Amino acid sequence: MTAPAERPAPPSDGRSGGAPAAPRTTARRALRRWSIVAVVALAWWALYSVNKPWWDLVLGDWLGLDLDSRVGGAVHFFLYDTVKIALLLTGIIFLVTVLRSFMSVERTRRLLGGKREGVGNVAAAGLGVVTPFCSCSAVPAFIGFVSAGVPLGVTMSFLIASPLVNEVAIALLLGLFGFGPTALYVAAGLTIATVAGFIIGRLKMERYVESFVFETHLRGQAIDPALGLPWDDRLRMGVEEAGAILRRIWPYLLVGIGIGAFIHGWVPEDFFAEHAGADNPFGVLVAVGIGIPLYSNAAGVLPLLDALVAKGLPMGTLLAFMMAVVALSLPEMVLLRRVLKPRLIAVFIAITGASIIAVGYLFNAIL
Amino acid sequence: MHIKILGPGCANCTRLEQVTREALDALGLEATVEKVTDDGEIAAYGIMRTPGLVVDEQVVVAGRVPTAAHVRELLASH
Questions:
Q1: Is residue A228 part of a domain?
Q2: Which of A54, A81, A101 is the last residue of a domain?
Q3: Coiled-coil regions in this chain (chain B) (predicted)?
Q4: Residues of chain A found within 8 Å of residue B49, distances taken between Cβ atoms
Q5: A137 part of a folded domain
Q6: What is the pLDDT along chain A (367 residues), one digit of tens a residue?
Q7: CA A39, A44, A50, A56: dihedral to nearest 10 degrees?
Q8: What is the nearest CA distance from A226 to chain B, expressed in angstroms?
Q9: B13 is a catalytic site residue
C-alpha cells in the first residue's frame, strides 16, 4: 500500500530531524511520507463513501435484483458489509497501531510499578487499552509484571482490559452502531477490568500463581521498543499490522457476515424482541453462557450482532455477548494455565463473567 | 556469535527468524541461531511482548519485527 522501508539517512540517530546533516533530504522525505499518507487517507474515504451507492447500482440497476426481497437484501448485506468492515478494520488498525507505537508494555510496567491497589487497578485498565499488546504474549507479560513487583490484582486488570477494549472491537462498534454504544462499551469494559482485578487482588490468591513466576529473576536491561522509532517505521508497523490482522481474521469475518446476511434475509423481523427481549430475564445469561466458550474475535461476532440488533435483540444483551466472546476464551485459559493454577483461573472466569452479566442487565434496564 | 529468537512460536517469531537469517546471509556471518520458547526464559530477558532478538546474551529488539536492513545494522555494529 505505502511505506518505503528505507530508514532516515544517519542510522545511528533514531529520530528523524535530529541530525544536523542533510536537513533538506529529511524535509523532502517527510513531505513525501505525509503526501502518501494523505493520498491513501483520501482514497480510503472515497471508497467508504461510494460503497453503498456502488452496490445499489450494481445489484439493483445492472443485475436487476430487488433489494427488498430476501435474496437481494441478503446479497446486498453481504457485499456491502464485507467491504465496509474491511475498510473500517484497515483504517482503524493502522491508526491505532501507529498511535500505540508510542507506548510499550515496558513503559506500562514502569508506570504501574509504584502503584497501590485501587489506583493501580484503574491505571492498569486504562493502560491495557492503549498499550500495544497481543494475548499471545500474555504469559511473558504476566511473569514480567508480577516478578517486577506489580500486584497480582493490578496485573489481572491489565490482562482483562487489553483484549476486552481492543481496537478491532472499537473500530467495528463505531462503524456499525455509532458513537453512543461504543462509548458505553469502552466505559463498561474499563469498569469490569478495574473491579474484577481489584476483587482478585483482595482475595489474596498469590499462592495460586505457579511458583516459578516469583522465582524468575529479571536479568539484563529491558529495552523499550517505543523509544526513538522514526515515523517511517511507525507507519510501516501500522500497514503490516493491518495486513497481518486482516489475513488472520478474514475467514471469521466472512462466516460472520454470511450468517449475518442469512439472518438479515430470513429471520422474522421481531424474532429476538419476542424471544430474547429486554424483559426476558434469561437473555443476558444465555448470551454470556454461549459467548464464554466461543472462540472468535470481534471481527467474527460483530457482523452477526449487526444483523441481530436489526431483528430486535436488545443492546445490553448484545454488548454482554460480545464482551464474553472477546474477554474469555478457552485458548486463552489454556495459555494462562502455564502461570495460574486452576483455582485462580476459575475465580478469574467467574468474576469476569459475573461482571459482564451485571453490565448486560444494567444496559438493558437503562437503555 | 550466538543468536536467540525469543517467542512461543507465533507468526511474528517465525518472521523474525527469517529476517535474521537473511541478515546473517547478507553479511556472510557465521552464527548459531537458537529458538527460545520457554515462558520463564523469555520473561527473564525482560521481554514482555514477543518476539525478541538476543545477540550474545544482549536483547537488541523486543516487541516488533524489524526490517532485514535494520537487523543487518544491529548485527554489523555488534
A1: no
A2: A101
A3: none
A4: 104-105, 132-134, 137, 140-141, 225
A5: yes
A6: 344 444 444 444 444 444 445 677 888 888 998 999 999 999 999 999 988 888 888 888 888 777 777 788 888 888 888 898 889 888 988 988 898 888 888 888 888 887 888 899 999 999 988 887 777 778 888 888 888 889 999 999 999 998 888 877 887 888 788 888 889 899 999 999 999 999 999 998 888 998 888 887 776 566 676 677 788 888 988 898 888 888 887 888 888 888 888 887 777 766 666 666 666 778 888 888 877 776 666 667 777 787 787 777 888 888 888 888 888 878 788 888 989 999 999 999 999 999 999 999 988 888 7
A7: 150
A8: 9
A9: yes
DSSP per position, A175-194: HHH-HHHHHHHHHHHHHHHH
Does residue A309 sit within a domain?
yes
| Catalytic residue (choose from B6, B13, B16, B75) | B13
Q: Which residue range forms the structural domain that includes residue A322?
A: 105-221+254-366
- What residue type is A110 in one-letter code? R
**Domain tally for chain A?**
2
B10, B33, B44, B48: the catalytic one is: B10
Three cell numbers at A24?
533538506
Based on the domain organization, do A76 and A123 belong to the same domain? no
DSSP tally for chain B: helices H, then strands E? 3, 4
So where are chain B's domains? 2-76
CB contact under 8 A, B39 and A338: yes
Chain B contact present for A220, CB below 8 A: yes
Identity of the amino acid at A43? A
- The structural architecture, per CATH, of the domain B2-76 is 3-Layer(aba) Sandwich (3.40)
